[in-house]
Amino acid sequence: MCCLCTVGQLVHTLPEGEAVHGVTLLAGELYLLRLEGRDQVEVYDVISYRLQRRLTVPDASWFADMTSCEHYRCVYISDGIVKCVYRLDVQQGAVTRWTVNDAPWGLSVNAAHDVLVTCREVRKIKEFSSHGQLLRELTLPDDVINPRHAIQTRSGHIIVCHGDVRVRRVCMISADGRDIVHSHGGQPGSDTGQYEWPRHLAVDDNEFVFVVDAGNRRVTLLSPTLEYVRHVVSRDHQLKCWSYRLCLDTERRLLYVAENEIDGMWRAGRVEVISV
Predict the structure, then answer these.
(1) Superfamily designation of domain 10-275
(2) Where do the domains of the chain lie?
(3) Minimum mean pLDDT among 138-142, 195-199, 268-272: which range?
(4) Which of 192, 191, 232, 188 is nearest to 208 (CA)?
(5) From CA 217, how far away is CA 259, in angstroms rounded?
(6) Disulfide engineering: 138 pairs with which of 5, 29, 125, 151, CB 3.0-4.6 Å?
């Protein structure tokens, strides 16, 4: 996958509906997580973008994120109020859940097919097996405040987006969670090299990093050592609303970006499909 090509282009917009709190790919289908009482998960074909079916997560309260695992053919959804992760087995249709004990935020799956759960209030990354066995906990360095999402590279490093009123950045952290190896960002702002609210991450096959910035309504591309490469969406073609979640399709070279209208409350949400 080439990461040094020109600015990405908008190729499609999925239907507008309730706010979107997650987007992921699994077995040639695109999964959207919406804030609804029932039928919270919408499943679309990645070629035609036609709606295939809807799924319900029973007894859910407040969704924070969604990710998937091709190995186990399942989708994971975090619930910040119930403080759990739901596991949707797409082949058997079963929905199970396990307790996180802290409020979960971002979700990702590593090369070992385990689930990384970002717990922002306690500044921890918790690693679980596919069925919810706690494998380890990492407490992040003191200056990694308010982490939102974390992903693990093949080398074992953990990349985290985080921020508060003083600093907003992306950090690469050693595999043991103790040291910051590289970072990008600093004081909040809209200039190149700055973020307003970095919210979600994706990594391609060459370990280039995509960062969605909610406040600046853009996606930034970073090198494997977190050096600035380019904005995926130019300043002249910013995303329309708060950019909130993203998912990378490396095979088709497409980025799915969830964006929501927020006016004191969550309003309408949609997913933009962008070539990269």
Answers:
(1) TolB, C-terminal domain (2.120.10.30)
(2) 10-275
(3) 268-272
(4) 232
(5) 9
(6) 125
